[in-house]
Amino acid sequence: MTSIHSITFDVPDTAAADDFYATAFGTGAHVLTRAAQAPTTGFRGYLMSLVVSQPSTVDSLFDTALQGGATTLKPPAKSFWGYSGVLRDPYGALWKIATSEKKDTGPATRDIDDIVLLLGVDDVAATKRFYVERGLPVTRSFGRKYVEFATAPVTLALYSRRAAAKEAGVPIEGTGSHRLTIDADTDAFIDPDGFTWEDTHRSTR
């Protein structure tokens, strides 16, 4: 099975960004940064999702992110599917913090159950086929609407670009670099939507 070990963001100041991600989310080695100034405008084509156990944990993570300089795109609220909110971090990445629960079952925690990288792609079926041919096993698939792969510790999922932008609460338009690299135990490649994969752990295995 192909594992996604971490996501690396291109940021202008790695020390400040590392401090933000550690303080706001506590994602540890699963979210890394590197110094880069690749040009980009508008929607970068992806959404990071933190799945947690209950609404109070959503609120806790959301609040610390805002205290660190993030901005609200969708305030946390109940929905048919649970409870969630969306924000933009100080470095331009979009984050959804969500739980399937609508009521707390215990004290608030800072625990994250799952980290999901949701790619907004031009053709869900074609991109699904591309990844399946590279050996990524599908765990959930809903036609051309949503696909999820078994790539723990970071889960890979696909939406259409339009659906991903709607989920994030931002306009669909965007150009330039994704400013993101997917770090996995696989040969380096670029997928049909321009997302870069690298094996940054090869030298340590």
Description:
With 205 residues, this protein is of the alpha/beta class. It has a single domain, classed as Roll (2,3-Dihydroxybiphenyl 1,2-Dioxygenase, domain 1), CATH 3.10.180.10. The protein is built from four helices and 15 strands. The protein has helices at 14-24, 55-67, 124-133, 161-168; strands at residues 4-11, 31-35, 40-42, 46-51, 71-79, 82-88, 94-99, 114-121, 138-142, 146-149, 154-160, 174-176, 180-184, 189-190, 196-198. Strands 5-6-7-4-8-11-10-9 form an eight-stranded mixed sheet. Helix 1 (14-24) links the parallel strand 1 and strand 2. It is globular, with a radius of gyration of 16 Å. InterPro entries: Glyas_Bleomycin-R_OHBP_Dase (IPR029068). It comes from Streptomyces polyrhachis. This is Glyoxalase.
Structural class: alpha/beta
Q: CATH superfamily, called what?
A: 2,3-Dihydroxybiphenyl 1,2-Dioxygenase, domain 1
Which oligomeric state applies?
A: single chain
Strand order of the largest sheet: 5-6-7-4-8-11-10-9
Query: CATH first level: which class?
Result: Alpha Beta
Rough shape? globular
Briefly note the CATH topology name: 2,3-Dihydroxybiphenyl 1,2-Dioxygenase, domain 1
Largest sheet: 8 strands, mixed
SS elements, strand count: 15
- Which strand-content bin applies to the residues? 35-45%
> What order do the helices and strands follow?
EHEEEHEEEEHEEEHEEEE
- Low confidence ranges: none
User: How many DSSP helices?
Assistant: 4
Summed up, the domain count is 1
Rg from Cα: 16 Å
Mean of the pLDDT scores? 95
End-to-end C-alpha gap: 16 Å
Organism: Streptomyces polyrhachis
InterPro entries: Glyas_Bleomycin-R_OHBP_Dase
Protein name: Glyoxalase
